[in-house]
Design goal:
Distance between the termini: 48 Å
Oligomer: single chain
Number of helices: 5
Number of strands: 27
Helix content: under 10%
Shape: globular
Strand order of the largest sheet: 8-4-3-14-1-16-15
Radius of gyration: 22 Å
Largest sheet: 7 strands, antiparallel
């Protein structure tokens, strides 16, 4: 296993699935973060440039996991969707967070569930007075995630998140002017939106400095070792470059913190660290209906679980352009379960150390896992359906 840091040399374009081109649109929009498949494609292309006799099937066996932001020698993960932030003290940075948990059976809000065995989830200890939840940073530090996932209690909590906002989106307008008329050439006036990885001081901060956000990646080359420890790769739209440097001391970023070296109890939480692809949409394919419940075995663990509830964000599009020989052309659109989505399980049989499940793919397809989709973080919860209507 080898670890790399990618430093974008200019804002990266992580295109969404909306059309662009002559007669289709004149604006390239960007998602909030780089798709795992973009990173996987860049790394495998770099390997192929060193050994161009490798076939696409051989290159696809290279496992590329990530990508996660790294800043100030910390790795960050997407904000979990089971955290509702009521308020953040600006002076101290302490956040008042309500935990979202499965509701007591029979409570409900008249919400139709996709399966009769599932219950909705809601904030626990919801206050009487109305409030508008504060928008949290898009990424949480590893330390904050460990604290959040390691607690199985349901009570609200005061904690410092130490978050990281997503890269700022930068618009660039491109135009070609016809010298004879001074007007824009047909189809040559368009706008692109890129992700700027240079961090600036937050709003309201009187002091600060510019710093660089990087992208952390873990690669298992298998039989096809990439020799160089430093190279350039094109990433995303317009083939903008990123400097890639091997980092030998990154193993600690990819292991579960010591606080999570505990055995699973009655309740298990699965938080998606990267977007996931499942054959059944939002529902993992390894869960099947049995005796009126959705049960299954967590991939590679032997732990049998029952799905109790889930907090899933709106789906994200995944498409792109294939350069594979014989399959050159646009890829079919797929729907991703967004990172940060949370699944609540009841453990039926077996048990496992949370650290052994850490950042392993839970996708149905092994190839999607090798492409970096569906990496999961694991934590505890009480296993009681406790949230009530408010």
């Amino acid at each position: 296993m080898r670890y790399f840091r990618l430093t974008p040399l200019s804002p990266l374009i992580a295109r969404d699935s909306r059309p662009f081109g002559a007669g289709q649109g004149n604006r390239v929009r960007s998602m909030d973060w780089i798709s795992p498949s973009v990173i996987a494609g860049a790394v495998r292309t770099a390997v192929w440039k060193e050994k161009d006799t490798l076939t696409p099937e051989q290159l696809k066996t290279i496992e590329v996991h990530g990508a996660f932001p790294i800043a100030d020698e910390q790795i960050y993960f997407p904000r979990p969707l089971d955290a509702l932030i009521r308020k953040v003290e600006k002076e101290t940075g302490i956040a008042d967070i309500l935990r979202i948990r499965p509701m007591a059976r029979g409570e409900g809000l008249g919400v139709p569930m996709p399966h009769e065995s599932l219950v909705p989830s809601a904030p626990v200890e919801m206050p009487e007075e109305d409030f508008k939840p504060e928008r949290s940073d898009d990424f949480w530090s590893l330390e904050a995630m460990a604290k959040w996932l390691g607690c199985e209690e349901d009570q609200r909590v005061l904690m410092r998140i130490d978050g990281l906002p997503a890269p700022v989106k930068e618009d660039r307008t491109n135009v070609t002017i016809l010298p004879e008329s001074g007007a824009a050439e047909d189809t040559k006036l368009f706008t692109t939106t890129g992700l700027d990885f240079v961090r600036r001081p937050r709003d309201g901060e009187s002091k600060g400095r510019l710093s660089q956000m990087r992208i952390g990646v873990r690669v298992n080359f298998g039989d096809y070792t990439l020799l160089a420890g430093r190279f350039l790769v094109p990433l995303g739209g317009e083939r903008r470059l990123a400097e890639t440097v091997e980092s030998g001391d990154q193993d600690k970023f990819w292991k579960a913190p010591d606080a999570l070296n505990v055995r699973s109890g009655k309740g298990l939480r699965m938080v998606l660290a990267t977007p996931a692809l499942f054959a059944k949409g939002w529902l993992p394919g390894w869960l099947r209906e049995e005796h009126g419940n959705l049960t299954g075995t967590i991939p590679g663990s032997g732990v049998s679980v029952r799905l109790v509830s889930a907090v899933v964000g709106r789906w994200k599009p995944l498409s792109g352009w294939s350069y594979e020989r014989g399959r050159n052309g646009p890829k079919a659109l797929r729907r991703m379960v967004p990172a940060g989505s949370v699944y609540f399980f009841e453990v039926l049989e077996g048990g496992a150390e949370l650290s052994t499940l850490w950042l392993r793919s839970v996708c149905d397809s092994a190839q999607d896992g090798r492409d970096g989709f569906g990496l999961a973080l694991w934590g505890l919860w009480s296993g009681r359906e406790s949230a009530r209507c408010f």
